[in-house]
Amino acid sequence: MHLLIYGCILGILLGGVYGLMASGLALVWGIMRVLNIAQAVCVILGSYLAFTAFTVLHVDPMLAVLPISVVMFVFGVGIYYAFLRPIRRDRESLSILVTYAIAIGIEGALGLIYTTSLQHTGTSYATQSFEVGGFQIPTVELYAFLISVAILGLLALMLQRTRLGRALRAATQNPTAARLLGVDIDRVSAVGFGIGISTAAAAGAVYGMIYSFNPNSHYDLIGILLAIVVLGGFGSMRGAIVAALILGVIASVVFIYWPLWANLSFFGVVVVVLLFRPQGLWGVPNWATQ
Amino acid sequence: MTAMLEVRGVTKSFGGVVAVDHCTFSVAAGSLTGLIGPNGSGKTTLFNVITGYLPSDSGEIRLDGRLIRKPDPTWLYRQGVARTFQNARIFPELTLRENLALAIPAGWRMLLNIAISRADRERIDEALEIFGLSPLADHRAGELSYGQSRLLEFATTLMGRPRLVLLDEPTAGVNPIMIEILENHIRRLHETGVTVLLVEHRLEILMRLCETVIVLDQGALIAEGPPERVRRDPKVLDAYLGA
Amino acid sequence: MSRATKAGAIRAILVFALLLALPFVFTDHWIVNIAFFGLMFAVLAVAWNLIGGYAGYIWLGSIAFFGLGAYALAITFQHVPLTSGYLPFFALIPIGIAIGIVSIPLALLLLRVRAATFAVVSLAVLFVAEIFAFNLDGLTGGPQGLGMALPPFVVTTFERPFYLAMLVLLAAVMFCSWYLAKSKFGLMLFAIKGDEDRARGLGVRTTTVKVIAFALCCGFTGMAGGLWAYYITWIYPQFAMDPNTMFAIILMTYLGGKGTLWGPVLGAFLLAPAKEYFAYTLGGSAFYLIAYAALFLLVMFFLPRGVVPTVADFLARHRRRAAVLASGPRPAGEQVA
Q1: Domains detected in chain B
Q2: Which CATH code is given to the segment(s) A2-116+132-276?
Q3: Would C220 disulfide with which of A111, A232, A287, C47, CB 3.0-4.6 Å?
């Protein structure tokens, strides 16, 4: 019982970080119907940037989150204009293949720069933990969770309160109507993609403190992120966050009892979703009208 | 006359918006019934529910008096219920012949049969002839004009020898000459004994074609009867003129 | 037989005659080795095209069935002495059929969703298969891999039996692809790609059609996997179920022309040798990945429809222009509307 509760606590902490990664994926899908397979490799890229900032410049990864987000935002906007905007026909399917190619391109580039050996951002508090009610809580995981929640909060505030946020939400709900209301879909898409990438990288910066990573790690991560989006419902940020917490808890609990099969639990949930609610928790059913 | 199609208390809402609200009506066998209502009055949604493209929230649908628990488009087509769509859905990558061949129901032998068998070919050529599309038989459907694709879609729905045909605004966005051609085809279909339910938002077309008109407004049925009477119904005037 | 089918038959006979002659003309090991991989990718691409090209479903789990076939064959013959060495070739047939049948319940599950959701859940299949291959080490040997006895073939022409077996498999899958494209079934697959809901409304049993195409794809892919395992004799999870191989198959299909008969074959023959060459010279290194990504993006942006449809369109336009010049004004039927 004690172990079970402990698993749930760790799962929620980890789920918050996954939620940050996956919410960017859901946002991008909602705005432009692009499924960004490169989301996970951008997480790893964020991890490497934080790793470099830490080892070379001695900047704490949690402080590096802000500059990394800014840099990766620009990077994301660049990727949008270079590779995604030109896709006109059949965007849903083609974008999967194009972003996959981007993903392995970045993976290759990371391999050139950092080699393929495992790295870890080993801060002074990386191995510390503190005790709450008999549970050993690792300090980094708590910090990572808090930072993720803070960024998600900022993002939610931006979406609710600002002009840009309104434009993003309008584009998500009804692109045609948004265009009629004078929203420049193209620019909004670019900004949305930039935000998606920068949230991935910000999550990556803290992810690198918890786990070891190498350029190849994004394969494991993308499977997890996609499972989250399937459960949450495509294009629903709220769904992505809730699903991330649910899956984080399930995977952590499975990990405690059967460590080898933790990753399988993500896909087990996908099977259940397909059987009982193919559109996910907050998704729109795939009914064709007209 | 017996009812071919009965709709009882069908309701469908999207989020908080009620698109179809406890709609009840029936379509007599062999009749040509019009379903009319202003834009956004739930006509297409009702069509989608009847033909199994959308699940209803409540209510029941009966075909020949038989309750249909879970309407499915494929099953309904094979039972003789065919429909068209508001925006003329055809297969632009396939040729006209292939479009028509596809709509001829096939059993397990589809794996072995060539795309257009000899028996099918005769029926297809006949249909092409009736709809004046013969010269374009082997062209890709994507090359057709909008009006022609309407004709093709109409022809396609008849390949399954339906008993009930639901037409969703067949004359929308089509030039006057084509409207006349389409009207003639609808009339001819009706004369061969097929039941037709026709959605329109323009009264004058229904006046010319239909025996019975059903009027929907904001998802609810507001009038039913012969076109002349319905036209003078104050509720209908209200809905149309927006009093 | 119409003129078009006659031309097609001649083309097929010519291509297969050349492929049959290849290992007897060029006997160098490296040439036959690369040709073997060319054929293998052709089989995989043609099989993928059944569901990915004809029906338009981006199926990203195909390579899991390649791995399944590989493990099925390797596990079956792990402890069986290979007297003549030809037995595993024949074992591929029941393995292919079994894999096709096994894939049906999975197809019923996956095909509940479409488009991008389908792509995502099908990618999950690949990850799940990989997890099983790694973790069920009692059966698969886990990360250490699984070995078979060395095939007892003459060293000088060692690759030849494998090459010929793969050629037979290619002929089979090509025949299947050709026959389906000509059949009513193929018409239904094309309709599903075009507008699945409309097809449902025209009485097409879309689920049945998709599941059959899916099972055929998985069966042939599994057979190719089994043959591959026998050829390389030692299999590891990360090579038997490599996501990069999965996307390579798709890239080949797109390059040649998805939804066409010869496109996937052409794409495989163009890219598979390049893949083997670069894998050999650059290793599995970072440069290899970058080159691969660049090539992928080039194909996606500059040849999204593929070589075969682009060339066919060019020829058709050329021919039509000639016909119009010869026949004068347009036929009356085109002015109906």
Answers
A1: 3-89+164-170+195-241 (3.40.50.300)
A2: 1.10.3470
A3: C47
> Is residue B70 classed as helix, strand or coil in its secondary structure?
coil
Mean pLDDT score of chain C, rounded to an integer? 88
Q: Where are the beta strands (DSSP E) in chain C?
A: 146-147, 234-235
Interface predicted TM-score (ipTM): 0.89
How far is the C-alpha of B58 from the C-alpha of B51, rounded, in Å?
Answer: 15
Answer whether B233's CB lies under 8 Å from B35's CB: no
CA distance C196 to chain B (A): 10
Least Cα distance to C72 among C176, C216, C224, C211 occurs for C224
Q: Are residues B99 and B141 in contact, defined by beta-carbon separation less than 8 angstroms?
A: yes
C-alpha to C-alpha distance for B16 and C61, rounded to whole angstroms: 39
Tokens of B154: 């109409």
Residue A106's contacts (CB-CB under 8 Å, 6 or more residues apart) are A38, A41, A42, A45
Give the C-alpha separation, C272 to B69, whole Å.
Answer: 52
Chain C residues near any Cβ of chain B (below 8 Å) = 182-188, 190-191, 193-195, 197-206, 209, 212, 331-334, 336-337
pLDDT at position C178: 93
Q: Which residue in A286, A287, A289, A290 has the most chain C C-beta atoms within 10 A of its own C-beta, making it the best mutation to test that interface?
A: A286
**CB A207 within 8 Å of CB A121:** no
Task: Identify the structural domains of chain C with CATH numbers, from first to last.
Answer: 3-327 (1.10.3470)
User: Which residue in chain C has the smallest CA separation from A111?
Assistant: C286
CA distance A266 to A228: 8
Model pLDDT for residues A6-34, shown as the tens digit of each residue: 889 999 999 999 999 999 999 999 888 88
Chain B interface mutation, best of C184, C189, C305, C334, highest count of B Cβ atoms under 10 Å: C184
| Neighboring chain C residues of B92 at a CB cutoff of 8 Å | 194
Structure tokens at C117: 């959701």
B156 close to B77: Cβ distance less than 8 angstroms: no
3-state secondary structure A193-226: HHHHHHHHHHHHHHHHHHCCECHHHHHHHHHHHH
Taking a C-beta distance cutoff of 8 angstroms, is the pair C334, B144 a contact?
no
User: Phi, psi (5° rounding) for residue B233?
Assistant: -65, 125
Using the 8-state DSSP alphabet, how is residue B140 labeled? B
CB contact under 8 A, A290 and B86: yes
Tokens 């949930």 belong to residue: A269
Could you report the per-residue pLDDT of C196-240, keeping only the tens digit for each? 999 999 999 999 999 999 999 999 999 999 999 999 989 999 889
Q: Tell me the three-class secondary structure of A227-246, residue by residue.
A: HHHHHHCCCCHHHHHHHHHH
Q: Which residue of chain B comes nearest to C208, CA vs CA?
A: B108
**Residue in the block written with tokens 């026709």:** B198
Find how far residue C169's CA is from the centre of its chain.
11
Query: Would the pLDDT of A196 be above 90?
Result: yes
In chain C, which residues have their Cβ closer than 8 Å to the Cβ of B82? 201-202
Using one digit for the tens of pLDDT, what is the confidence trace for A222-261?
999 999 998 998 888 889 999 999 999 999 999 888 888 8
Does residue A56 or residue B228 have the better pLDDT?
A: A56
Residue extents of the structural domains in chain A: 2-116+132-276
What the block records as the tokens of C5 is 């089918």
Give CA–CA dist A14/A8, Å, rounded. Answer: 10
pLDDT of B55: 87
Of B108 and A45, the structure prediction assigns the larger pLDDT to A45
